[in-house]
Amino acid sequence: MANILISGASIAGTSAAYWLRRHGFTVTVVERAPAVRAGGYKVDIRGAALRVIERMGLMDAVRARATDMRVATHYDAAGKKVATMDADLFGGRTGDDVEIMRGDLNELLYELTRDEVEYVFDDSITAVAEDGTVTFERSLPRAFDLVVGADGAHSNVRGLAFGPEERFVRHLGHYISICSVPDPLGLDREEAVHAAPGRTANVYSTRQDDGVARAAFIWSSPALVYDHRDVERQKELLAEAMSGMRWEVPRLLDAVREADDLYFDAVCQIRMDRWSKGRVVLLGDAAYCASPASGQGTSLAIVGAYVLAGELAAGRGPEGYERELRGFVAANQALADANLKGMVIPSRLALWFQLAMIRLLPRLPGRDRVVERVAGPIRQAANAITLKDYME
Q: What are the boundaries of the signal sequence (predicted)?
């Protein structure tokens, strides 16, 4: 098996491209967008994923682009500061964990691979035949030994090989939306948060943002019916969900109407009994999306790419990849439900209690135990795999 096509030039796809080339495979990446996607939101790299980044020789570059967030501040409806906490604790980060903008990480991975990997932009797969012939929207058909679907939770490749998305989605009862906005508060590496029962708004600016902030909204909701490519309808749904919230929310929603990089999706997971079928194997969110609530989607993509390439090179194929990764995926998907309880608070009483705990935390005699209760499960899940050295 020598000639591999990857669908998707995001974190999973570019990471897989790197490791597959290191193992001697010929790699082509096809991406629907006209270029590698820039911008995006901040993501965490933890545990085993850090060890993969180290083996790629990217650790210094990743740390140089870390967000350097300092503090998370909670505001009430009138704009008064009501609680603050360390940004790393707010994000569940401990030890060597790194937070970086998604676009920055993707750029580093692309630059690492662009000279040895064929990238085909502005195109998409339309069919994969049993003999490995792949047809495209724009390019001529080509033959590949394996197709890797690394094209996200709404994977086109998964739909072609496994059937409708609805068969594999576990909806977690929430939606999330993120986009770039003008910085409304002059933030300096700060998260600014306002929560109401069932809804949370967050705006943050990293050290690289220079007057630009990211507005993030998450709220409780049953499943919605909408077109994933109808951005204007998504903006309407977001405005409806946040209607009546005070603080900076009305101003943020005004800015959202002008945004050209809106991310809007259900907080959901992809659960599949198998990740490969015929000449297709799925990677990252396409196979095992853990949802943004897990905080581990990026780490799963990085580790999954490393393991998939290594198992293919070792001759154990997609089956070996699944055996190595299943436990790691299960541990990280399990984080989402617990994390959501802290991200979206269901009642005013529960919200009051949460803010009171944040204010008291620095003075609590059992502070370290409280911190461990938050960060411990994330750290354990992030390290729930023993990485093989496939380059020996």
A: none
Structure-block tokens of residue 122: 């502005």
Which amino acid belongs to residue 51? R
pLDDT at 96: 87
Superfamily of domain 3-40+102-168+268-338: FAD/NAD(P)-binding domain (3.50.50.60)
The domain limits of the chain are 3-40+102-168+268-338
What band does 212 get if pLDDT is binned at 50, 70 and 90?
A: confident
Q: How far apart are CA 47 and CA 95, in angstroms?
A: 9
- 77 with 68: CB under 8 angstroms? no
The yes-or-no verdict on residue 23 having pLDDT over 90 is: yes
Torsion sign, CA atoms 54, 56, 57, 60: negative
